[in-house]
Structures are given as structure tokens and as C-alpha cells.
Design goal:
Blueprint (H helix, E strand, L loop, with lengths): L8 E2 L14 H16 L4 E6 L6 E13 L9 H4 L4 E12 L8 H19 L5 E5 L3 H9 L3 E2 L7 E5 H11 L1
Helix pairs in contact: 3-5
């Protein structure tokens, strides 16, 4: 029988993160120390995917806002960004992980689609931000995010990656 997974849903106080293992100790540590508090205090939007057969958390991501200096965006500046203010609001994907036993099953791609839908909805109905930013500190993470349309932005940091929300909207229209 195949995997039965929940749709990404908000992290709730009853969700147990203690057994979550993804192979990245810094993410695992952040989840155990900060995920619940940051979610409850609305510092991050934390969403999880649950294995409906075992009730285990199999994937998680956390979003927040950052401001990026327009001058630090280098060649990634579109006409839209160039005409904007000196500090550009950006959605920040701060944590993104799939549990080790569930990696390689397409769950990461599903999480990205959920993030993109969530950000596009919020840009239309909430607080818009023209950029999405993340730190791809592991090489396989950089390759994954490049495949998802993100571009390196070394002006922001050695492992920083950025994509414009307009690019995400175009990509999602093609996928429909």
C-alpha cells in the first residue's frame, strides 16, 4: 500500500517533533527548540505533513519575512525590483526538511508547490512581497532549489538563493 500523507497543515501544539530526523542537525535542533514557540508567537508560519498511517511528521517548512537590500540583489534585479524601494520585502523559507525515511519520494517537490501556492495566495490577499529568499547551505539543497527555479545570489551570502514571485506565478500557471 502507498503512502497516505496529509496536506501541509499548520504546526499545532500536539504535533510531536522529537523524533523528526532529516539528516541536518541544525534543522532538527531548530525544530525541537523553536518551531512550536515561533509558530505560536507568529514569528514563523510553520507547516507540517503527517504520515496518516503512523501520525509521524514527515516534512516541515517555516516561512517568515525579511527585507533585502536592492543593491545586494546584483544581476537578479528585474525592472519591477529596480523601480522599487531600497529595501525589498521578501518571503523567507527559513526551514525546509523531509524526514530521512521519506526522502526521494517527491515530497519535497510537493512542499515547494504548497509554498508557492501559499505565497501567491498571500500576495493576492495579504501582504505582498516580490521576492522569495532562502539559504541553501548544503550542495544537494542548492541543486534542488535551482531545479525549482531559484538562482544563486552571492551578494546576499555564499549560499543565498532568490526567485521573484512573478516567476513563481508564471511557473504555477504552466503547471495548472
Amino acid at each position: 500500500m502507498g503512502l497516505r500523507l496529509s496536506r501541509p497543515q499548520p504546526l499545532e501544539p500536539h504535533h510531536d517533533l522529537s523524533g523528526f530526523r532529516c539528516g541536518d542537525r541544525s534543522i532538527e535542533r531548530w525544530l525541537r527548540r523553536h518551531a512550536h514557540a515561533n509558530s505560536q508567537q507568529r514569528l514563523n508560519c510553520v507547516r507540517v505533513v503527517i504520515d496518516l498511517g503512523t501520525d509521524q511528521i514527515v516534512a516541515i517548512y517555516a516561512l517568515t519575512f525579511k527585507q533585502l537590500s536592492k543593491s545586494a540583489l546584483g544581476p537578479l534585479q528585474s525592472e519591477f525590483v529596480l523601480r522599487g524601494p531600497g529595501l525589498i520585502p521578501a518571503y523567507f523559507i527559513g526551514q525546509f526538511a523531509v524526514a530521512t525515511d521519506y526522502q526521494g519520494k517527491g515530497i519535497g517537490g510537493g512542499l515547494v508547490r504548497d509554498i508557492f501556492r501559499f505565497l501567491l495566495f498571500n500576495a493576492e490577499h495579504g501582504i505582498p512581497a516580490p521576492l522569495v529568499y532562502l539559504d541553501a547551505s548544503q550542495q544537494n539543497a542548492a541543486s534542488f532549489w535551482r531545479h525549482m527555479g531559484f538562482a544563486e545570489c552571492p551578494e546576499l551570502g555564499d549560499t543565498a538563493m532568490v526567485i521573484e514571485l512573478n516567476t513563481i506565478a508564471e511557473t504555477m500557471n504552466v503547471l495548472r
